[in-house]
Every structure is written in C-alpha cells, then in structure tokens.
Write the structure tokens for this entry.
Amino acid sequence: MNRSMPGQGALILWLAGLAILAAVLLGACSQDREDAVPKPGSVGLDEATLKRRTDALRKENAQLQVRLDKLVPKEPYIVVNTTLNRICLRKGGETLLDAVCSTGSNTQLTAPDGSRTWFFSTPRGVFKVKNRMERPVWVRPDWAFVEEGEPVPTASSPERFEEGVLGDYGLYFGGGYLIHGTLFQRFLGQNVTHGCIRVGDEDLAQIWKVTRVGTPVYIF
Amino acid sequence: MVRGLRPLLHCTWISAIALILVGEVASDPSCAARAQGAENLDAEYVRLRAVNAVLKARLSLSQQTEPYLILDLPGREVGLELQGVTLTRVPVRKVSVNRLAAEIADDTAGIGFCEVPFVLGEDRWFEEVPTLAVKDTAAIMSHPDTTGALVERIRTTPVLSLLRFDRNLVVALNGYIQPTSRIEGWKRSLRLLWRSLKSKTPEGILQSRRGDSVLLELELEPAQVRSLAPNLTHGTKMVLRF
C-alpha cells in the first residue's frame, strides 16, 4: 500500500499536467476560432459577402486610379518649388530634370511718394506656357526704375528695353512672369528675384527643348 | 523498483495518447487556416476601403484650383498635390499619435473619420530664426555671404508647424535634423521636456493639444516642412489615411 502511493501520486500529477496542457492547447485553438468571427469594430460580414465586396472594391480602386493617372499630363510639364528653389521637368511619373533655380524674394517695394507698392513673389498655382522667346528682351517695368531711384519713363521709351539680361530663352507663363536665364548664376538656389524664375543656362536649354506653348507649369 | 515504475509507465502511455489527441485538435487545418484566411480577408477589405476613401477624396479635390495635402500614415509620407499632379512627396521619419488618435485608428472607425477631407482652420508657425522671407533683395545682392547662410538656415534650423483641422484634428509637422550623437539627442529631449512645462512655448502648446485633440506628430526634415508651409493656408484640404 505504502509502496503504491508514490506511483498513484505521480499518475495524478501527470494527469493534472496533461489536463492543463490540453486546456492550454484547446484554448489557443478556440481563440483562433473566436478571432475568425468578426469582432466589434471589425467589418462584421460573413465570408462570402466579404469576398464579393473585396473583389468589387479592388475593381473600383483600379478604375479610380486610372482616372487619377489621367490627370497627370502626358506631355512634359514643369514643377517649381519656391522654397527650396528647385525646378523639375517631368513626364508622367518620370523626372527628366531636377535643377536649381531662383524665385521671388518675397520683399516689398514702395514708391518714394508712397503712391505705389510692389510685392516681389513668384505666384503659386497652375499656369501654362503662353509664349516662347529666344534671346528675350527685358521690358523694364516701373518698379525697376523705382528700385534704382530713377525717374519712370514713358511706356515706349527706349530706356525700357534691355537686351541680354534674361539669358538665351524665355518661357512666358502670364502675369508678367517668365522662366528665363540669368547673368547672376551665383544667386541660383536663393530667393532673390522679382517674381520670375531664373534658371542656369544649360538647364534652361534642356527645358526649352522639350517644352512648347501650352506646357503646364505647377508652382508651389 | 520495477513495481514502482509501473504506474509511471502506464502514465506515459496515457500521456502519449492524450498528446496525440491534443496535437490532432491543435493541428486541425480547418481551425487555424480558416481563422487565418478570414483574418486576412478582413484586413484586406479594410485596407481596400481605406484606399478607396483616399482615391475618391483625391479625385474630388483634383477639381479645385488650390493645392491639397495627402497624409499617408501607413506609407509614412506627406504629399502635396494640385489638380491630380503630385508636386512633392516628403518622407516622414517618425509618426507619433496620442491616445485619441490611436483609438480612431481602429480599423473601421478610422475609415469613417477620414472619409471626408479635413479642412485647415488654423496654422501656427514656430521657428527660432525666421528664414522664409528675405528682408531686402538689394541688400542680399550686395552681401552674397548672407544669402549662403540663409539657404543653410532654411535647410537646417528646426521648425514646428502646428495645423489645426476641423473634427478636432491637429497635425504637428516637426522639422529638425536628427542629432548626430546620443548625448545630443538626450540634451534635446531634456530641453523639449523643460519647454513643454511652460504653456506659451511651442512645446507647451503641443503638450496641451495632446490632451484634448486627435494629435498626429510627424517628424520631417526642416527644409521639407518649409516647402509645404506656404501652401498650407486657411481652408487647405487634407486627405488622411490612417
């Protein structure tokens, strides 16, 4: 009797251990089953419905993506970052050129008599190239004379026309603003212009080659 | 000794049978695989719904003339779009959300919260050294050294942009260059902690937002925050994907 006691104790211990092990394993499995049932906050649909809706969503998303992709111009377009002073030439999702440029200084100029004020910033938004010019001539606006402390001449005065300061090419995108070259290459990368976008000679030549009248210009 | 072992031997047989039975139940393919499959389908459906909401919002916003922000938290990216064209895409180094945001991020609730684009109601800008505007073009032309310093400051000076959208959503764009050493990192953390105790500091304001708003804090490069800033004005829309 006494001899059999240790054997019975071991059996009880083994059985208890097995019961715990079985409970843990079954518990884990039942947990898996429980997870398969939608929890509160989950989608709460049966599998067949869920599969049908998932397929429908996949198709709809593909169609929406196609519609979105169509919004990106197929032809090359220009993107200008006025804070970092970068100009990009892109075609679809591909970047053809990423170059340094100079944009508006965000400064203000007031005429000595206080009658007029100019704010020199590059406009943000979507524009289109309206005109392409080789060897553009700068028609000096009134502020150019005010800034230099000179009297403002008449609109047709020869003093207004200055050659060679805008580089080899000019792309006019409205509002008196151009993408053009510069004599001040060392200021590229800085906000120093009166609103125009200045680009280095080689980069400007590359932009000139692939753009046409109507090329979109996105400025941000 | 042999007799003493007998119950144990008997026990081993029982345990072996029990283990086989238990193993059978646990390894039932219709149990684990079905659960896993359903879970995957569930997750895929939720993901597709979130993508669907973002695509629809982007299409609708592409009709307007103002740029809009796309904040993709799973993709860790902030994008600026205009009429369907991506102007810039900025990688986010780190995303932190507060308790309220974490609650909303729960599968379906998050989609509902994000279905309609958010509208920017207030933006606050904090930087120790002002860098966005240049004082005088003529002065810069005559002092080229200062312009180089300015470009450097735009690139590196820490900046915090606090954007308050409708539906009590606050997005903090935290622009700073990551400290190069661990000690520098600790110093910065301590400095921020100290400043957060004062209510009028940017960190103090951010701390107060943590308690009462759905707050998303994004860590970016300072230059990227500055690039986005001029385009984020009152009424700017934002598409958010949790």
Summary: Helices of chain A lie at 4-36, 47-71, 142-148, 201-210. The radius of gyration of chain A is 36 Å.
